[in-house]
Automatic annotation (TrEMBL):
<keyword id="KW-0547">Nucleotide-binding</keyword>
<dbReference type="InterPro" id="IPR007861">
    <property type="entry name" value="DNA_mismatch_repair_MutS_clamp"/>
</dbReference>
<dbReference type="Pfam" id="PF05188">
    <property type="entry name" value="MutS_II"/>
</dbReference>
<dbReference type="InterPro" id="IPR027417">
    <property type="entry name" value="P-loop_NTPase"/>
</dbReference>
<dbReference type="GO" id="GO:0003684">
    <property type="term" value="F:damaged DNA binding"/>
</dbReference>
<dbReference type="Pfam" id="PF05192">
    <property type="entry name" value="MutS_III"/>
</dbReference>
<dbReference type="InterPro" id="IPR007696">
    <property type="entry name" value="DNA_mismatch_repair_MutS_core"/>
</dbReference>
<comment type="function">
    <text>This protein is involved in the repair of mismatches in DNA. It is possible that it carries out the mismatch recognition step. This protein has a weak ATPase activity.</text>
</comment>
<dbReference type="Pfam" id="PF01624">
    <property type="entry name" value="MutS_I"/>
</dbReference>
<dbReference type="InterPro" id="IPR017261">
    <property type="entry name" value="DNA_mismatch_repair_MutS/MSH"/>
</dbReference>
<feature type="binding site">
    <location>
        <begin position="664"/>
        <end position="671"/>
    </location>
    <ligand>
        <name>ATP</name>
    </ligand>
</feature>
<dbReference type="Pfam" id="PF05190">
    <property type="entry name" value="MutS_IV"/>
</dbReference>
<dbReference type="InterPro" id="IPR007695">
    <property type="entry name" value="DNA_mismatch_repair_MutS-lik_N"/>
</dbReference>
<feature type="compositionally biased region" description="Low complexity">
    <location>
        <begin position="625"/>
        <end position="644"/>
    </location>
</feature>
<dbReference type="InterPro" id="IPR016151">
    <property type="entry name" value="DNA_mismatch_repair_MutS_N"/>
</dbReference>
<feature type="region of interest" description="Disordered">
    <location>
        <begin position="849"/>
        <end position="938"/>
    </location>
</feature>
<feature type="compositionally biased region" description="Gly residues">
    <location>
        <begin position="857"/>
        <end position="867"/>
    </location>
</feature>
Length: 951
């Protein structure tokens, strides 16, 4: 925001107050309460009015005019939300009474990561990133709306690996706001990556808050020494003093930021959870996006895996299911427990529906706990707590009364929360009326019988009201006036109104208040006294109920952990039931989870594509590393050429399928088949059933993908560079327990570079890494690797080509295919017929190494002239050099026969008529054993030969 101008500095009154408060905060905007309105002034008013479509008026102060834009007090929330969701931080200055009028102070700074007013079911994370060394980070994430608080330590073998992992975690939590620690905030590349790769707002929170001493103190004060110790963050060994506990530093910074912004929800942050990356499947940012877990590549939620499988009926259930999907697990006991739960729900349709119908009435207890802690929960919110707590025994009964559910881990889930404590809190909340008002200051919140004093006030109030309600009848009788009524309004209070025709009958005890057109208004001493009594009672009732309500709400806030544990149990049931619903409706099966690493899928389908397509199921067989002889597969950075010794130490025995080279026509379903393998593995590792007739899934430690070309150009990065970065990340990170999906790696560069890279990457993955890998490619050269590298096998997606038409069969068969049918796809895509025909012709000639005429071209340059009337020029495209050899050089008559000019066709070189250097090169070419030379080596040699020939 601009510096304070001279006129601003002189501003007094409201505007002056606004400007001096504005100077106190580094928030983007300040909004200040002025009576019943919240107002923005000056530049803030203009910008905000523009953003939110508000009206700007002018406020004059000290001879200058200031723009002003405001919203009524009760309308601030939606406007605030809009600003914060666009990444702005907004300071709120509230007005309070003082002895001599009122004053204002900043009570809260609302930021993207501390917005409590969210109505979205999604988690809303605030993250802190601390770097203690290039290879070591601490990451903390907190959701102020639910009280979730997680920390982890992230390390890597080198700085790049550690940074990649930090981003994997950040991407997983998708934070709304990130607080970079002191080291990270000076690293422009790191910050740029946050800006590019996430939607988070970056906030520079005071560096002191990250300091080990202060952070440890904050964390201990919040969670207690024992909690710290129980999650392995104990600092008794002095670790934090030696600057060595980055998790605590991140946690401390988060807590101090929540405090500083005045969010006031620390009471709902009851549990610190430290998690290890090892518990979860590594899913890097690219993979999460490529697999379209929560959004499609186009950024839509519809059509994502989550959108497809989500049948939850509550917001917490939805949040939890999404979290499972984004953080699949490796530990079999947890996965089997979840699987047992899903299976039980799948088998007991009736009980499952009873549970889901009951859950349908549940509110978001975690969010309500945060609202109670913040002090913003009203009586209706506490009523929601009561109603939701009341569902726990109902759900527990539904589980207990079904033989299948009661024998399953679902029984443990419903008994995990402290049901007695939940019942006690529910009883306390019975104090609330059944239909309380939305405000907490005007009474009407409590049932009778809760508080004696309140009951007495209510009795007297009712009695006074009864007296008033019957006053008109009494007065009519006493005075004989027919047109008489008793009523109340703001200016006159209670009054007796008499029609003009009968004012003559009005007794002396009536005091006239005012005359209206057709009537007169009166009061009496008795009425005045009753009126005062009623006002007194109403005021006292409001005060007393507000006080009692405050106590009740505090009692709820104190039991935030109970609400969270009940909320969590209900969310788990909802998420598991949702998985069961999807499994039953779509004929999914429970996968057998093993530690063998093998992946066997019978009649597998793609979980999303099967919903919209007549899907052709396919089998998949891949062998895990643990199934093979123990071989030393420690990663090394040098990728040796394939050699017999490699073959001995490489990925396993003959016939083993560790690495599948997937070929097939364009559009035949290669990507779908590979993603299907990744998604089935991932679903199995969240505890879900999978789309197949049967499946055995050996748990993986990571899923890595390099799929398709992403639209990175918008971010100013070359697509090929991104492709290589992603490949590099995979080659560094994957292990023999990982699943790797590579789709057309190398496609983004010159053909021979591409083939060479793909070839070398295949060797490296097969020889050194040993991960299960699926590699789709159009480079048919790679299919020969199956004969040369153990564990590597070819599969192809079948297509039927008869009468010149291609039919995609979509079935996967062993062995390579030798065609890519790209021209057929061009035809399907509506490329003009002459171009399609001509492509067929060129392709045939290329394959047969025939000369190709350049239509409409000029001799030797292969192009240029339009019209095609001139004599066709004959050229040969030399696959070796990637160049045309045109005109007379081309040789041949274009009607078949082998071209003698291609540098690969050694036999046709006439060694008698050439110089000794050429002869030597020809000899070298002859002696080269192609079966024992890697493409890179071959390229080097060809380059050397070319240089010698050109000299
Ligand atoms: N098993 C299947 N059953 C039915 N439809 C399928 C199947 N597999 C793929 N498809 C459909 O075929 C289309 C092409 O699939 P996909 O993108 O996987 O092909 P591809 O071989 O990877 O293509 P390209 O080589 O051009 O990248 C998709 O629209 C997909 O929905």
């Amino acid at each position: 925001m601009a510096a304070v101008s001279e006129a601003d500095a002189e501003a007094t009154g409201i505007v002056g107050e606004f400007l001096s408060l504005k100077a106190e905060t580094d928030a983007d905007f300040l909004v200040m309460q002025v009576g019943d309105f919240y107002e923005f002034f000056g530049e803030d008013a203009e910008t905000v009015a523009d953003l939110l479509d508000l009206k700007v008026s002018q406020k004059s102060s000290h001879g200058s005019n200031y723009p002003m834009a405001g919203v009524p007090v009760d309308k601030l929330t939606p406007h605030l939300k809009q600003l914060v969701e666009r990444g702005y931080r907004v300071a709120i200055a509230d007005q309070y009474e003082t002895d001599d009028g009122h004053a204002r102070e900043i009570t809260r700074v609302v930021t993207p990561g501390t917005l409590l007013e969210t109505t979205d079911a999604d988690a809303q994370y605030l993250a802190a990133v601390v770097r203690v060394s290039p290879e070591r980070y601490g990451l903390g994430v907190a959701d102020v709306t639910t009280g979730r608080f997680l920390v982890t330590e992230v390390t890597g073998e080198d700085a790049d690996a550690a940074t990649d992992r930090v981003f994997t975690e950040l991407y997983r939590f998708d934070p709304a706001e990130v607080l970079p620690g002191p080291e990270v905030r000076n690293d422009d590349a790191f910050l740029d990556r946050i800006r590019e790769r996430t939607d988070a707002t970056l906030t520079l929170h005071q560096a002191d808050a990250f300091a080990p001493g202060r952070a440890t103190h904050e964390t201990k004060a919040q969670f207690g020494q024992e909690t710290l110790a129980s999650v392995g963050l104990d600092d008794t060994a002095g670790a934090s003093r030696r600057n060595e506990n980055p998790q605590v530093q991140a946690a401390g910074a988060l807590l101090s930021y929540v405090e500083e912004t005045g969010t006031g929800v620390k009471a709902s942050m009851t549990r610190l959870q430290s998690y290890e990356g090892d518990d979860h499947v590594s899913l890097d940012a690219t993979t999460q996006r490529n697999l379209e877990l929560t959004e499609t590549m186009q950024g839509d939620r519809d059509g994502s895996l989550f959108d497809t499988i989500d049948h939850t009926v509550t917001s917490p259930g939805k949040r939890l299911l999404k979290e499972w999907l984004q953080r699949p697990r490796q530990d079999l006991p947890t996965l089997r427990r979840r699987g047992d739960g899903v299976a039980a729900f799948a088998d007991s349709a009736l009980a499952r529906e009873t549970v889901r119908e009951t859950l349908d009435g549940a509110y978001d207890l975690e969010r309500l706990a945060s609202k109670a802690a913040h002090g913003s929960a009203d009586a209706r919110d506490l009523l929601r707590v009561r109603e939701t707590l009341a569902l726990l025994p109902e759900v527990a009964d539904a589980v207990a009364s079904d033989p299948t559910l009661s024998e399953s881990p679902l029984a443990e889930i419903v008994t995990r929360p402290d049901r007695e404590a939940a019942a006690a809190l529910r009883d306390e909340l019975d104090a609330l009326a059944d239909d309380p008002p939305g405000t907490v200051t005007e009474g009407g919140l409590f049932r009778r019988g809760y508080d004696d004093e309140l009951d007495e006030i209510i009795d007297r109030h009712e009695e006074a009201e009864e007296w008033l309600a019957t006053l008109d009848d009494r007065e009519k009788r006493k005075t004989g006036i027919g047109h008489l009524q008793v009523d109340r309004n703001k200016t006159d209070g209670y009054y007796i109104q008499v029609g003009n025709s009968e004012t003559g009958k009005v007794p002396d005890r009536y005091d006239r208040l005012k005359s209206l057109k057709n009537s007169e208004r009166y009061t009496t001493d008795e009425l005045d006294e009753r009126e005062r009594q009623i006002f007194r009672l109403e005021e006292r009732r409001g005060e007393l109920e507000y006080e009692l309500f405050g106590d009740l709400r505090e009692g709820v806030a104190e039991r935030a952990d109970l609400l969270q544990s009940v909320g969590r149990a209900l969310a788990e049931l909802d998420a598991l039931a949702s998985l069961a619903v999807h499994a039953v409706e779509n004929d999914w099966v429970r996968p057998e989870l093993t530690e063998s690493g093998d992946l066997r899928i019978d009649a597998g389908r793609h979980p999303v594509v099967e919903r919209t397509t007549e899907f052709v199921p396919n089998d998949l067989r891949m062998d895990g590393a643990r199934a093979s002889s123990s071989s030393d597969r420690t990663a090394s950075s040098s990728a040796p050429a394939t050699s017999p010794s490699d073959r001995e130490s490489a990925a396993g025995r003959d016939g083993e399928r560790r690495f599948l080279v997937v070929t097939g026509p364009n559009m035949s379903g290669k990507s779908t088949y590979m993603r299907q393998a990744a998604l089935i593995t991932l679903l199995a590792q969240i505890g879900s059933f999978v789309p197949a007739d049967a499946a055995e899934v050996g748990v993986v430690d990571g899923i890595y993908t390099r799929v398709g070309a992403l639209d990175e150009l918008a971010q100013g990065r070359s697509t090929f560079m991104v492709e290589m970065q992603e490949l590099s990340n995979i080659l560094h990170s994957a292990t023999e327990d990982s699943l790797v999906i590579l789709d057309e790696v190398g496609r983004g560069t010159a053909t021979y570079d591409g083939i060479s890279i793909a070839w070398a990457a295949t060797e490296y993955l097969a020889n050194q890494v040993g991960s299960k890998t699926l590699f789709a490619t159009h480079y048919h050269e790679l299919t020969s690797l199956a004969d040369r590298l153990p564990g590597v096998q070819n599969v192809h997606i079948a297509a039927d080509e008869s009468d010149g038409d291609v039919t995609f069969l979509r079935t996967v068969e062993d062995g390579p295919t030798n065609r890519s049918y790209g021209i057929h796809v061009a035809d399907l895509a509506g490329v003009p017929e002459p171009v399609v025909e001509r492509s067929r012709d060129v392709l045939r000639r290329l394959r047969e190494d025939e000369a190709i005429d350049v239509r409409g071209g000029q001799s030797g340059d292969g192009g240029g002239q339009r019209g095609g009337e001139s004599d066709p020029q004959q050229v040969v495209f030399d696959l070796g050099s990637g160049q045309f050899r045109g005109g007379d050089d081309a040789g041949g008559d274009g009607a078949g026969g082998s071209d003698d000019a291609g540098s690969v066709d050694v036999e046709s070189v006439d060694t008698q008529s050439v110089d000794p250097e050429t002869e030597a090169v020809a000899e070298a070419v002859k002696d080269t054993d192609l079966s024992d030379t890697s493409p890179i080596e071959l390229m080097n040699r060809v380059q050397e030969w070319q240089e010698r020939l050109r000299e």
